[in-house]
Write a structure and sequence with these properties.
- This protein is mainly alpha-helical.
- The chain folds into 2 domains: 391 residues, Alpha Horseshoe (Serine Threonine Protein Phosphatase 5, Tetratricopeptide repeat); 44 residues, no CATH class.
- 48% of the residues lie in helices and 6% in strands.
- The strands form 3 sheets. A 3-stranded antiparallel beta sheet has the order 4-6-5. A two-stranded antiparallel ribbon has the order 1-2.
- Strand 5 and strand 6 form a beta hairpin.
- Helix 4 packs antiparallel against helix 7 and helix 10 runs antiparallel to helix 12.
Length: 476
């Protein structure tokens, strides 16, 4: 999306929110398909629908439905032994290839569309405060601010230099207004400062969040609107994002404090071996600090991660790669339960089952995809310790024990390698490994001999349209 414009389009918003009929019924459409804010935000339910629309937009295949999970991000970090042929150029970091540019543009446009929709709500909500019931004003505004911060955070993780490498490099526009005016490009440092500002404001508003206060919510309370807080950017998700931000910017003590606040809340627990073995909860729903309900999760998995599809169209690991990822083998829950072997000419191929929730599975687990989970908080603590030359085995062991492994008893001779190997095991297929390599500004452990630092491959190029109409400076 050209960020000189910040327009919500009726069709996209309605499809994203899954409410086409209701949109047709109560939205007055301008000739250019722009929604009248006077109609959309006449009621509290309009704000609720708009907020739901942003979350649903994020579930698109071009965003967290695939590309920012196991798709583009997985290929860029060389997680896969084999991947669909359409990703060959990504694997070579040929960002000038047409199909790569198209994929990058879709990510850029989708994330900024979510930001635009969030700004649209924020532009209207303060003037409508009196229409909200109970704590809904604070919660909806807090989530909208958190969404704006979260989406910009992933944009700068993709399109900005590593903060620890060049914080003064031009990065992305941080859009805070619903306006047609061009938003200036911010540096990496400025972007993180703006993310922090939004997260701090969101956290203060979300102090009334039931997941934080302990208030019991039932279906009788506002039709259960505040149930399932893990599917929203809730109070602890904001705290987790603060931990992530402090970690990425080198504020390691603050990162540890924020991560520990999430851990010690006791709200998030590791999934059990029984749940994994039953195959109902392969993404670990109790671990999700923030997740998305992706209606097409199974369909995407069936298309791209299935042993029943053509090799040239699927992502998979070789038997050797799977063993290299999980050297403890049959005692590691992730090795045992998250993969299935192919048949015939695919008998040595292992396919990720994490997103393959069967249709008959428990409704609580079906379609849930993880975005932020509790184990990341342990890795933030371990990574912060690593950066300061402190012990890393304590927090790593918390995750290892939860995955069926024994505890490390001796500090590793090469702590950075050990940290990355443990990280790679835990976040396989979740899109996080690329960012971790980038933060450390180091070459990828395995899968490519290319020097991503020298190639500037850790920084995706801005869309061409941004240079043509946005007068941007190079971000690379």
């Amino acid at each position: 999306m050209n960020t000189t414009r910040s327009i919500i389009y009726l069709t996209l918003l309605c499809l994203a929110a899954g409410m086409v009929s209701s949109c047709n019924k109560w939205l007055d459409v301008e000739p250019n398909s722009q929604i009248k804010s006077s109609e959309l935000f006449k009621t509290e339910s309009g704000f609720k629908e708009a907020l739901a629309g942003v979350y649903t937009l994020m579930t698109a295949e071009s965003l967290y439905g695939k590309e920012l999970q196991y798709g583009m991000n997985g290929v860029l970090s060389h997680e896969w032994t084999s991947f669909p042929l359409v990703y060959n150029e990504e694997a070579e970091y040929d960002y000038q290839a047409t199909n790569v540019q198209n994929r990058i543009n879709s990510v850029w446009n989708g994330l900024y569309q979510g930001i635009s929709n969030s700004n649209y709500m924020l532009n209207e909500i303060d003037a409508k405060r009196s229409m909200f019931t109970d704590d809904n004003f604070a919660i909806i505004k807090g989530e909208a601010l958190a969404l704006r911060a979260f989406l910009h955070f992933d944009l700068v993780r993709l399109f900005g230099a590593s903060y620890l490498v060049d914080m003064n490099k031009p990065a992305i526009p941080y859009v805070t207004q619903y306006t047609a005016k061009q938003t200036p490009q911010s540096t990496v440092k400025e972007t993180y400062e703006l993310i922090l500002r939004d997260l701090e404001a969101a956290k203060e508003l979300l102090e009334v969040d039931p997941i934080f206060t302990g208030r019991v919510i039932t279906e009788a309370d506002d039709n259960g609107y505040l149930l399932n807080r893990q599917l929203h950017l809730n109070y602890y998700a904001v705290e987790a994002l603060l931990a992530r931000l402090y970690y990425y910017t080198g504020a390691y003590e603050k990162a540890r404090i924020a991560a520990n606040a999430v851990i010690t809340s006791g709200k998030f627990t590791y999934t059990t071996q029984a749940n994994l073995s039953a195959g109902n909860d392969l993404t670990g729903a109790p671990e999700h600090i923030f997740g998305l309900n992706i209606n097409n999760l199974y369909n995407y998995s069936d298309l791209y991660l299935s042993k029943d599809r053509l090799i040239s169209n699927t992502f998979f690991l070789s038997a050797a790669a799977r063993s290299a990822y999980y050297p403890e083998g049959s005692v590691d829950y992730r090795y045992i339960y998250l993969f299935e072997v192919g048949e015939g000419d695919k008998a040595s191929n292992y396919y990720l089952k994490k997103y393959n929730a069967p249709v008959a599975s428990n409704l609580y687990y079906r379609n849930k995809s993880v975005v932020i989970k509790i184990s990341e908080m342990q890795f933030i603590i371990a990574g912060s310790n690593l950066a300061e030359g402190k012990s890393i085995i304590g927090p790593l062991n918390k995750v290892r024990l939860a995955r069926g492994l024994t505890a490390l008893t001796v500090e590793p001779a090469e702590p950075t390698i050990t940290f990355l190997e443990e990280f790679r095991k835990e976040f396989f297929g979740e899109g996080q490994l690329f960012y971790q390599y980038k933060r450390l500004n180091r070459t990828i452990i395995t899968g490519t001999d290319k020097n991503l630092v020298a190639l500037k491959a850790y920084i995706l190029p801005l869309p061409v349209a941004e240079y043509e109409s946005g007068n941007r400076n190079s971000n690379r």
